[in-house]
Each structure stands twice: as C-alpha cells, then as structure tokens.
Amino acid sequence: MIELQHISKRFNKGKVNEVLALQDVSLTIPEQEFVVVIGANGSGKTTLLNILSGAEYCTEGNVIISGTDVSRLPEYKRSKWIARVFQDPLKGTASDLSILDNFRLAAIRTTNKKLIIGVNEAFKKRVKDTISILGMGLENKLEQSMGTLSGGQRQALTLLMSVMDDTRILLLDEPTAALDPRSAALILQTADNLIKQYHLTAILITHNLKDANQYGTRLIQMGEGKIIRDLQKTDKAALTLPQMYEWFN
Ligand SMILES: Nc1ncnc2c1ncn2[C@@H]1O[C@H](COP(=O)(O)OP(=O)(O)OP(=O)(O)O)[C@@H](O)[C@H]1O
Ligand SMILES: [Mg+2]
C-alpha cells in the first residue's frame, strides 16, 4: 500500500519564481490498484511521481510504502521495488549497450543475485522468453545495441526491464507521448498485461483521455497541485469519454 500524507512540494522557496507544485495532497493506493492520472500541464502530476520515486523530496508530509516511512529514503534505495518509465524512450536505457546487457543492468538494480546474472544462460533464456511476448521479433536481436532500435521498440523493452524481479510499483509518466498510435497502443496493452500478470501497483500519467478511459482501475484528475477528482473502479467504469472531455471545457 502507498500512502501519501499531506504532501506539499515547494520549488525555489522565497524566490520570485517560487512554485507550490503540490498542495497538501493525501492519497492512499492499495496494492494492485492501477491508477490513471490526468490533468493540465503544470498541475503537479510528474512532481507527484517524483516524490513517490524519491527523485524529489517533499517539502511537507510523509510518503509511506508498505507501512514504512520512505520520505527521506533516496531514489536508488527505492528503485529495488519502484520502477519508472518516462516519456522519452532514450531515458532509462543505455544506448551503447546491447539489449541483453540492458536487461542485465536492470536485473542488477532489482535483485541481490548479482553474480549469477552475468554468466547465466538461464538468464539469457529468460530475457528471450520475456521479450518474445511483445511479438516484435526482438528476442532474436539480443546482441543489437539499444541505440539502434526505434522509440517504440525501446519503450517496450524499457517496460519489460522495469518489471523484473522485486518490482512492486510501476510508475509510467506519459510513456506513449513520443510514439506513433500503433506503438502507443502496444505499449499500453503490454503495460496493462504486465501489471496484471505481476500483480503490480501502478500509476499511469497520460494526456490521452481515451487511454485514461480505457485503462486502469481508478482515475485521478489533478489541478493546480491538488487532486480535484478521484473516481474509484465502478464510477470509472461507468464514465464515458464525452463526460471526460467536458471536464476540460
Ligand atoms: N525542478 C523544478 N523546479 C522548479 N519548478 C518545478 C520543478 N519541477 C516542477 N516544477 C513546477 O511545478 C509545477 C508542476 O510541475 P509538474 O512537472 O509536476 O507538472 P505536470 O502536471 O507533470 O505537467 P505536464 O503535463 O506538463 O507534464 C509546474 O509549475 C512546474 O513548473
Ligand atoms: Mg509531467
């Protein structure tokens, strides 16, 4: 369970460009919930994920994960169980390294069995099997460098890497914004499958209302650093796309 308790985040305190990016946000997310977050530019969505992942510390409030206060735990320590996928497909993987080596790095991040990973044929087989579910043929290109792949291919692999081993929480910040419609659909479908298969707790930020309508078990709208709507499963399922468009008129 994730508990955000009275979170505020202030940037550039005391300066002319001071911003209150989050204002007393409280949010409880039970295990295996898939929360979709929408909201205008600058409403605090990314800041919320940053505070959860440890990329930023909150100015006020507490971040509790599975009963432990992690408010001041650095990002690299949280990354054992929190994975992130960003808007930019170039972020999160090493361009010069092969697909297989990128998976090795990801596994090292989330597991304690470091020494086995490097030499193990079983690991290679596991990576192959995992990649083959994408249906992109990338399982036969394990030695190809990550930098030579398309944005959609990279994003699909980033997603797979992010759910390895001890990952419990998956944070997706506009993961399809840079992709063509077909790749975008594949990425979201893959994410949805992985979230279910690995029983992950997930948060997806998107500006695509159709995706927000289609995916997830809960819908949150942010506005000016606050949660302004919070729809649970039944209400979300009953929500129509035209109703959502009206929120932004
Ligand atoms: N590192 C930072 N330093 C100063 N201000 C920041 C910083 N990060 C975010 N902000 C400000 O905080 C506010 C919230 O930004 P945030 O990136 O969380 O919005 P967002 O909802 O993710 O927007 P978008 O939809 O454009 O990605 C904005 O006013 C932004 O300018
Ligand atoms: Mg953002």
**CATH architectural name:** 3-Layer(aba) Sandwich
Order of secondary-structure elements? EEEHEEHEHHHHEHEHEEHH
Estimated structural class: alpha/beta
Helicity, as a percent range? 25-40%
CATH fold annotation: Rossmann fold
What is the CA–CA distance across the termini? 34 Å
The first-level CATH class is given as Alpha Beta
Overall shape: it is globular
Give the CATH H-level superfamily: P-loop containing nucleotide triphosphate hydrolases
Detail the poorly predicted runs. none
- Portion of residues in beta strands equals 15-25%
Description:
The protein is an alpha/beta fold and 249 residues long. It is 37% helix and 24% strand. It has a single domain (2-247), classed as Rossmann fold (3-Layer(aba) Sandwich), CATH 3.40.50.300. The protein has helices at residues 45-53, 75-78, 99-110, 114-119, 121-132, 151-162, 181-197, 209-214, 233-238, 241-247; strands at residues 2-11, 19-29, 34-39, 60-65, 68-69, 82-85, 169-173, 201-205, 218-223, 226-231. The strands form two sheets. The protein has a six-stranded mixed beta sheet with strand order 6-7-8-3-9-10, sandwiched between helices. A four-stranded antiparallel beta sheet has the order 2-1-4-5, covered by helices on one side. It is globular. The two termini are 34 Å apart. The protein binds adenosine-5'-triphosphate and magnesium ion. Adenosine-5'-triphosphate (ATP) is lined by residues 11-12, 19, 21, 39, 41-47. Magnesium ion (MG) binds at residues 45-46.
